[in-house]
Write a structure and sequence with these properties.
Layout lengths: L1 E2 L3 E2 L1 E4 L5 E6 L3 E7 L5 E8 L5 E9 L5 E8 L1 E9 L5 E8 L4 E7 L5 E10 L2 E8 L1 E2 L5 E2 L4 E2 L5 E4 L2 E5 L5 E6 L2 E7 L5 E9 L5 E10 L9 E5 L4 E7 L5 E6 L4 E6 L5 E6 L7 E2 L34 E3 L2 E4 L4 E2 L36 E11 L7 E10 L7 E10 L11 E9 L10 E7 L14
Antiparallel strand pairs: 1-2, 3-4, 4-5, 5-6, 6-7, 7-8, 8-9, 9-10, 10-11, 11-12, 12-13, 14-15, 16-17, 17-18, 18-19, 19-20, 20-21, 21-22, 22-23, 23-24, 24-25, 25-26, 26-27, 27-28, 29-30, 30-31, 32-33, 33-34, 35-36
């Protein structure tokens, strides 16, 4: 694949048709290694002329497919060991290398809310330890001084920061200290434009920069952006053959390669112009930016272009905002069961899981129904049949989306088709209850309401 500005991208594939290596403009190569289960154990970028590694990231999996240890280098390097509890939640991180010797321990309640973080490090030969405790109400909302919510469970304030929302729960505004940013949406609910402002002590605007996103398809990842409307500064996102962000080109044609780690996070921003310095970026397991490393517009997850250069530091993850400082979303999950509770991220395992859309983590199986054509059964008195399109969605690293079979859903005998339908996700493989033809998907159950609807819902789940 040849981009008119960035250059030529190539790919190599394994026996199953998965991308296992890429060639990049400027003479660089990406190589990956996977084990027999499909777990990617290493990812490294090298310079073709001398074989020097610019970024390498390797991990050893457990029998459950979670990383038990990892080793990363980008200039300097470090190694980490991970431990999990019986439910798969990340509880301990031991680290040594670039950032010194560190230990982080996480505790959770029964709903996977983080209740305590103990962080210890060796700072100039002196051990330093801090402990942070967290409390929650019965709705799993984080409580504390300066934290408030609106009637819909959306975070309005936290110390030093305020948030505003649109009626569909998407971000409208963030204000933190002397920085304020306001977003507008397009007809599909994507981030169309934004205005970043600097405020004085009285709240008056002293500087303002407006930007506009442009999309070439139905995704919420921008194809190109006018970074500064007044100065006509533009950047264009170039994806590789794997479908992930690989380079960013500028107004004058300069190209910066985006080298990412196993998790899809920013690792190295590498300009093809040798006169320009490279920038090393890094985050911890909850994606807090590491001290002394660069912050970028798409710091995490870079490969999928989730905006992270916000005043509050919250990352715009699809339909919700994710706050890495507390490892939680700032509003409730629009999909029931998409995570362990309405606010938490990835069932306590952000190290191996992602929730790119803000509605269903990659550790969960999410499903929706589209129903139409309600009609009385011709064979069973009192039964109402509808046609249903089953959309089975598994959001993983590559945003996999599967379409299930089309079948017929029936209400209970003698029952009425309810206005509010819910899908109850159960464990194990099985079939769709109520479908004339079983689908090869996870077992589902349907719960019906008691009153007939005036209009049939077009989307449930």
């Amino acid at each position: 694949m040849t981009d008119s500005v960035a250059g030529t991208f190539g790919a190599t594939y394994d026996a199953s048709g998965n991308v296992e290596g890429e060639t990049l403009p400027g003479g660089y190569t990406l190589s990956t290694v996977s084990d027999e289960t499909g777990f990617t154990t290493s990812r490294f970028y090298t310079r073709d002329t001398d074989g020097i590694a610019l970024l390498s990231d390797a991990a050893v999996p457990t029998v459950h497919g979670q990383a038990s240890s990892s080793t990363r280098s980008a200039g300097a390097g470090y190694s980490q060991d991970f431990r999990y509890d019986r439910t798969g939640r990340l509880t301990d991180v031991d680290e040594s290398g670039t950032y010194g010797s560190q230990h982080r321990a996480y505790s959770f309640d029964a709903n996977s809310n983080r209740t305590r973080l103990v962080s210890a490090r060796d700072q100039d030969g002196t051990p330093v330890s801090t402990t942070t405790d967290y409390t929650y109400d019965t709705a799993d909302s984080l409580t504390g001084t300066g934290i408030t919510y609106d009637a819909f469970g959306r975070t309005l304030t936290k110390p030093g920061t305020t948030f505003g929302y649109y009626a569909n729960d998407l971000v409208r505004r963030q204000t933190c200290g002397d920085r304020r940013k306001t977003w507008s949406l397009d007809a599909q609910g994507r981030l169309a434009s934004s205005t970043a402002e600097t405020l004085d002590g009285q709240g008056a605007v002293t500087a303002s920069v407006s930007s506009v996103n442009h999309y070439r398809n139905g995704t919420d990842s921008p194809s190109w952006t006018v970074e500064d409307v007044a100065a006509n500064l533009r950047s264009r996102n170039v994806t590789s053959l794997s479908g992930n962000l690989a380079a960013v080109t500028g107004t004058s044609g300069g190209t910066v390669l985006q080298l990412t780690d196993l998790h899809g996070d920013a690792g190295v921003a590498l300009p093809l112009d040798p006169a320009q310095p490279l920038a090393v970026a890094d985050t911890d397991e909850y994606r807090n930016v590491r001290e002394g490393t660069a912050s970028a517009r798409y710091n995490w997850p870079t490969a999928h272009m989730r905006e992270s250069d916000t005043p509050s530091g919250a990352i715009l993850m699809g339909v919700r905002q994710y706050d890495p400082s507390i490892g939680r979303f700032l509003s409730v999950d629009p999909v029931y069961g998409g995570n362990a509770n309405p606010y938490e991220y990835c069932s306590g395992d952000s190290n191996n899981c992602t929730d790119l859309g803000g509605d269903c983590s990659s550790s969960k199986l999410c499903c929706t129904f589209s129903v139409d054509n309600p009609h009385p059964s011709h064979t069973v008195k009192g039964r109402i049949n509808v046609h249903a399109d089953v959309a089975l969605v598994r959001l993983g690293k590559d945003g996999l989306r599967l379409q299930g079979r089309r079948g017929r859903v029936q209400s209970p005998r003698g029952g009425q088709l309810g206005a509010a339908w819910h899908l109850l996700l159960l464990q194990g493989r099985g079939r769709f209850h109520g479908l004339d033809r079983p689908g090869r998907v996870r077992e589902q159950g349907l719960r019906y309401g008691h009153k007939p609807p005036k209009t049939l819902p077009q989307r449930v789940g």
